[in-house]
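Protein modeling request. Please complete all fields; requests missing the sequence field cannot be processed.
Requester role: graduate student
Desired output: 3D structure, token encoding
Chains: 1
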Amino acid sequence: MTHGSRDAPRRGAGAAAPPAWGVQYTLSLPDEDAARAAAAELSGTGHRLTAVRVHDHFRLDPSSFWHGRPSMDPGLEGWWQVFSLAVHSGYDRLALEPFLRSERIRVAQVARAHGGFQQGYSEGHATTLERGFVRDGLVHERTGADVALPGPLPEDPVRPWAGPPWKNSGTGEPATLVRAAVAVAERMYGSAEGAPDAVGWLLDEEFAFGDPYETADEFLGELADAAAHQGTCTIATVEAVPFLMELVRDDGVAPGSRLILLGELLRLAASGPATAVSLADRFTALGDTPQESAAEHLTRRAIGSDLPGLLSRWDAGPDAVRFALTALTALCGTRDQRVLSGLAVLPAPPGSSRADVVSLMAALLGDDREGLASALDRLSSWLPSVVEKGASPNVDLRNLGLAVLPDLVLDDLTHASDQAGRSC
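Delivered output (424 residues):
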């Protein structure tokens, strides 16, 4: 669905106007003068409330719970922050998304122009955000102000046809998948005492008497969260990787469940580049060199070291699995002739979104910087999230390609399945 006035009520259109929507931005700047300059610029574009405070200002307040406590972000000691509330009226949140995306890009540019970075943002009904806005350090207040909206609102580009549907035999029975996971854990570790923390629960006696899972997805979601809580790589994640890789290879796992597991491995392998992209402006402002954490690096290396075992079964899986394996190979920087040759025979006809994803994989596998820039340009023409992630001049193109690859692969698998369902 595209967004615009056709899909969203606005004032005077014969329907009650949706509640005003608010976005509160947080910027980090190197000193007070830079913070005040950025605040004035945001206020000048129609932001309703703008405050400037020294970083961790609550730690300086004797009445605060945080007084005297260690900083949650000591790297910003001595920096200043801008908190600015923008209000948008007349449209519902869905219709505003393309415009708000451009605003996030614009506000990030304001922060960069003053030597800092956009630290984050939060959204909600404007009345709620305005009521909760902390006015300490308030420097600009424009009562009742709204940020001017263009007419008509911008719309997202049309997504190309994904490509021919993948053959999918489903995720299988959850009980069968659970038995396979337990068998793999017993084969690898023998008992809960010898298993990594993220796997040991599968071998705990109480697990066998728990409520059965209704779907394979439910079990795989619990397994993924145990390995990397909320997607964050830790040492426990590194220890769990060999088990996840062995489970992907196990014959008791249906192709659909294998794809879900590969999707989790894709996200884990991309966690380092994704962090580098999201924090590129911060690294630059602080004069740091972008680098993945030790856990992210070790996770990716652990996946890469076990990857040849998965690739040895290249010819045994369906095209959808080979598609995901190609992406995992690119993320791990592995060179394998089967994968390079397999790119040419994946069902990715010209003009499909899948063809653009395959081009990105080819550029990453071949370390082709010119091809990488071209592939990212094509992806940006129909996928706004790539535009937003790559909007900063501080973002490295290779990191960008690696960071967006997991979602591109998983979105392709979803869109192709949706199209298959609609054509039935």
